[in-house]
Amino acid sequence: MGSIRKYPEDGKSRIISKIYRCLVICLFSLGLIFLGGTIYGVFFLSSTLEQTKTTNQYGQELGQGQTFTGIGLLRVPTADPQPGTVIIFTLFDYDPEDKAFSEELTLRIRDFREILIGYLGSFSVYDLQNQKEDFLKSEILRRFNEILQLGKIKTLYFSEFIIVE
C-alpha cells in the first residue's frame, strides 16, 4: 500500500496560502455586497424611484413613465442668408410598458429629427427669437403625433433650446 507523504511547507508556500485565503474571503465578501445591493434595489429602491418626480431645467414636471430622449441633441441651421444655429434637445414622457408604442418611437427617431430640422430650419433667427416656446412645442408635437399610429405624445419638453446667431 502506498503511504501519504507530507512535505514540509516552506515560508513562501505559507505566505501564498494566506494571500490566497484572503483573496477568496474578499471575493466572497464582494459577492455578498453585490447580492445585498441588488436585493435592496429591487425591493426597496424601485418604489422610491417611481415616486420621485423628474423636472427639467425649467422646473416643468416630466410626469410618470419614462422619458424618451432618443432624438438627442440637434444643431439646426436657420433660414437666414448667414445662418444661425438652433441647439435643441427634445424629450417627452411615454409608457415603457406599451412595447408596440415604444418600438414605434424608436423606429421614428429619424422622422422626428427630420421634422425638427425642417420646421426649425424654416425660421430665421429673428423669427425664432420672437416665437413663443409654447407655440413651437405645440406645432412640433402636432407634427410628431401626425406620423405616429400606435399612440400619441401628450407633452413635449425642451431641455435645451438655444438660438446662436
Classified by CATH, the class of the largest domain is Alpha Beta
Class by alpha and beta content: alpha+beta
Radius of gyration: 28 Å
Overall pLDDT, averaged?
Answer: 84
> What is the N-to-C succession of helices and strands?
HEEEHHHHE
Principal-axes geometry comes out as elongated
If classified by CATH, what would the architecture of the largest domain be? Answer: 2-Layer Sandwich
| CATH fold-level topology of the largest domain | Tetrahydropterin Synthase, Chain A
**Weakly predicted, low-confidence segments:** 56-63
The figure for the number of domains is 2
Map the helices and strands.
Blueprint: H1 11-51, E1 66-68, E2 73-77, E3 85-94, H2 99-107, H3 109-120, H4 125-130, H5 133-147, E4 156-164
Antiparallel strand pairs: 1-3, 2-3, 3-4
Helix pairs in contact: 3-5
Can you offer a commentary on this structure?
The structure is a single chain. With 165 residues, this protein is α+β, with helices and mostly antiparallel strands. The protein has two domains: 8-52; 66-164, Tetrahydropterin Synthase, Chain A. It contains five helices and four strands. Strands 1, 2, 3 and 4 form a four-stranded antiparallel beta sheet that branches. β2 (73-77) and β3 (85-94) form a beta hairpin. It is elongated and about 95 Å long.
